[in-house]
Model the fold of this input.
Amino acid sequence: MQMKSTRIVGFSLAHWLLSAFSDDRYHISIAGDCEELWRDIAELQGRWQAHRWLWSQVLLSIPLFLIDSLAWSLSMFRNYFKTTFRHLKKHKGYAAINIIGLAIGLAATMLILMWVQDELSYDRFHEKLPRLYRAFTHQVYSGQVFNFRDTPAPLSAALESEFPEVERAITLLVTRGGVVEYNDRRFDEDAICFASSGFFDLFTFPLIKGEVGEQFKSKSSIMITEETAEKYFGDDSALGKVLRFGEADFEVSGVLKNIPRQSHLQFDFVLPFENSADLAGINLENWYSNWPSTYILLKQGADATRFAAKIEGVIKAHAEHSAASVWMQPVSRTWLYRLTGEKAGMHYVQIFSAVAFFVLLIACINFMNLSTAKAANRAKEVGLRKVFGAFRQKLIIQFYSESIILAVLALGIALLLVVIGLPLFNQLSGKEMSLTILKDVEIWGLFLAITLLTGVVAGSYPALVLSAFKPASILGRRFTSSSGGVLFRRVLVIVQFTLSVALVIGTSVVREQIRYIQAKDLGYDNKNLLVLRLRGEGREKYSVFKTELLKLSGVEGVTGTDKLPIYGGNSTASYNWDGKDPEFSVLINQVRCDFDYINEMGMTMALGRDYSRHSSGDIGHSYILNETAIQRMGLDDPVGKIFGKEGRMGSIVGVVKDYHFANLQNEIEPLVMMVDPERIQYLLVRLDADEIAAGQKAVEATWNHVNPNFDFESRFLEDVMSFFSTEERQTEQIIAFFTVLAIVISCLGLFGLAAFMAQKRAREIGIRRVLGASTQGLVYVMSREFIVLVVTANVVAWPAAFFMMNRWLNNYAYHTTMSWSLFVVAGISSIGIAFLTVSFQSIKAALMNPAKSLQCE
Amino acid sequence: MTLLSKPEELLLMAVCHLQDQAYGVEILRYVSEKTGKKWSIGSVYVPLDRLARAGYVESYQGEPTQKRGGKRKRYFKITKAGEQRLLESKQLHDAMWSDISTYLERS
Done:
């Protein structure tokens, strides 16, 4: 059957398909068989039939070949597993360093990502979240813009009736402080929410008891959370029970599921908003008083931007002289952003994400570094495998699967570390995260992807570079590892240490800033100052307390105020003074206090006189302002000038030197102080520094004697203040924690690398030693290379860290300056740590008997 | 000892029967003819590959022909182990047949 060989149309594709899927050994003969049969069929039945036959062959055979090759590669994979574990066993130390380093890095990243996830999940549970907005006011005083969450109480009703875009708008107020009675029991509650009736139309707070829609059936209905119900009624049904707030009774009409921790609204009770008039002193009709919050639910499809522009002037339309315009912010952004849209908590989310990324990067670099270093040792293995017929492709698969297996092992250990470390991390971060977050499929996917990526990247060098080596050159004696690999490793070490040094500098700057804030001269003395909060009728007993307390021996002084110098004050622009431009207004914070407040707190007067019990009219008619206020008001000779609000006009008797009456993130604002002993809410007791414990006990005894209705609760002002900087403190602790981890991981890597280098250079060291090199000299020779790398890393890290931390510090109105010593300390310590790590190995190598190292090979 | 699958067994017998002529096309023709079914190229080569890996057949390259587009044939040849394996297989069949022959004859 002789036939001319002609090109058969469509044949080459079929041929290619078959050969691509079948074993290399057979594909030529398979193609030949196909061609032979094709010609037979073509001769008998025509080309068309022959083609049909050919393609049916292709389609039928490919699955068979595929299944077959899969079965083989599975058994090969078992082989990869086996070689991997053999390899691990052989190099236990190296494997441990490599896996543990990566595991720590992965665990740290997981923890931070959990934290980030937690922060980002705030308020996400509201079903109508995309349409929910919070209105806020934008107020301009003497050219300065202030943003407040506070809005006028009638705003929500006006928005609802005047704008078709609004589906529902509500007014809401969460107050601190209020006494709740049930039978004979009294509790001081500090999370009471007053809300108008659309509350449940906007927010998703599920009811577990009571009828939906019945919650606001009368003015005296109240809803409580599950937790609160248990606190008051135990196992009894809460529905229908009566709670007493001040003079009014409220009947429980519903029990809410506990408010999720990740909600910016936190409360235990919900009362109809009308009650806020009696219980919180809100004027329900006043457009000039900005106090409660307003939330808006827009209709489906409403254009938020256009709507925001429309409502800007709504307050002024109702109240001609109001300084406030209405703006709005999506509820989804309330937790992480300021009203103006600047990042607040988002800052930390970003910082932490960056830290997580850095730590992971360092750990991955380590993993790659050690893998590549070790891989060079395996060149001979590669050569041998090749000689025995291993294909390059198979070697690539082998190296990849090895490093992926290691990475997956590290992931397993990392999970274990997360489980163990979570309680510690919660303590550090002040969160209550649980492992339930690990149920999240996305998080799993992310970690798995990170792990696999690390494995693949780390495996790439040995897989792609080593597998390409020619066996002859590897197995011959002259083989040296490629200089490319060495350079690559050096760059990786530099990157790693750059990140570590930058983290160290960052942490110390944050710490410096916290220390700066704590040590800052506040303008008064906050040492040994005990704070007692007066509640209920306790307020009326202020003077009784004061007289009784002053009799105690450990008490140096007693005074009182309505606001601690941390919370700031409530501010108003309604003050007038001599020569005030009617167009011009200054927003002034107000503090009410006792006669001796300035003196007892250790503040200093800049001008004029302090308050005095002896000058009649100091209550209500004498004012003391701070320096900033005088400056903003533009008064030249303030003392004696007429000053005050309508109905309470008086004169300025003195000027107090600026002191920090709000937290330190803010600049000092104008302040007016007035004497009003009846409105004092905090008793401040200065204790003798030598008898603090005794003094505190004596104060407690007096408290119980005078006011037995409330339990004694006292805190030192300093502690309350540090509570206010917990955010910074937690940031510092978290970053410090991860910085330490980053350094540990970097050093682990360096340790492994140094060990590897020492081993590689064993013969060189031996020869040097034989030729008379000293131990110190050898350690120097061995360490030099690494020290140069770490120094380079410092050179890169310093400017980068300076730039980043400068931006961070600029968030604070009062901030420390970065001293060069921070950088030097970070530099020296990084070099020191690197040297110690490396020298352990190099000393070991230098002390080795040269006879041994020269004998082998 | 793992048992041969039916295709493996049939192909091993085909290779044994065809002797010098045992290459893809002939094997395919022979088993298709005997079984009355159409065997695909894949269904011949995959079991043959298994047999080769198990050491029951060997393969060697033959001469290229015009008809094959200049591609060499690959001939298969049964090994001693393969012959042994076929005999064992037959013994097993015979033994089991003798156990059931009485029932089959009766029906």
